């Protein structure tokens, strides 16, 4: 996860994300188009939800800010696209992880976990329904409610970020590449390398990101886009970006370990099964 953040910050330092944003600015002509672009880009980066969220939010916030889209809505679009698409595409890190669980719990035969996962995709209601709702929000057919409505009203009055929100400063001196085409290549090529390397190593995102970082460092170094000092600054910024999500994941694993030690999972399963049996017998 830290490598995800580092990779994104290196792209940011090299001006590639800014170049990509500038290219999108010329393509996006309305508020709804900015929301739709966020949605469709989220679908394209399906290999990992964390990588999806980091890359899309970094590249789209400049555009959505320009059309007075609240950061809350941008966060909703990014997050609610990233997780479902990773669930529904069977070559994502989530699919590989879940297929291994199916095999470990003897739900699927050894080596058949991914096949069982693919068979279950049509029934994954959360992913399909959530993507449908996000699409309706993006095209303006789903009204804003509650806190989101207030956030959008605030954004239309010129304040896209909520009170107290602070962007991590990657450096105000970052500039887009002087050659727009090369700037776009500098953004897309590391992404292609990341996806390709992850696929090559069996959907191993850790290996994929590591290869992509090495490639990006060499690629940017050849063009003299970043100095070594800027590179280490990017690595440090990447750690800061991912510190809170990493802490959340660690906390989740700790909670799981405690629950397993207490036998809570088995207790819940047995209790629910008992309630179901009693209900069916009474009927």
TrEMBL record:
<keyword id="KW-1133">Transmembrane helix</keyword>
<feature type="transmembrane region" description="Helical">
    <location>
        <begin position="117"/>
        <end position="140"/>
    </location>
</feature>
<protein>
    <submittedName>
        <fullName>Putative symporter in putrescine utilization cluster</fullName>
    </submittedName>
</protein>
<feature type="domain" description="Na+/H+ antiporter NhaC-like C-terminal">
    <location>
        <begin position="115"/>
        <end position="275"/>
    </location>
</feature>
<feature type="transmembrane region" description="Helical">
    <location>
        <begin position="181"/>
        <end position="199"/>
    </location>
</feature>
<feature type="transmembrane region" description="Helical">
    <location>
        <begin position="34"/>
        <end position="53"/>
    </location>
</feature>
<dbReference type="InterPro" id="IPR018461">
    <property type="entry name" value="Na/H_Antiport_NhaC-like_C"/>
</dbReference>
<dbReference type="Pfam" id="PF03553">
    <property type="entry name" value="Na_H_antiporter"/>
</dbReference>
<keyword id="KW-0472">Membrane</keyword>
<feature type="transmembrane region" description="Helical">
    <location>
        <begin position="205"/>
        <end position="222"/>
    </location>
</feature>
<dbReference type="GO" id="GO:0005886">
    <property type="term" value="C:plasma membrane"/>
</dbReference>
<keyword id="KW-1003">Cell membrane</keyword>
<keyword id="KW-0812">Transmembrane</keyword>
<feature type="transmembrane region" description="Helical">
    <location>
        <begin position="74"/>
        <end position="97"/>
    </location>
</feature>
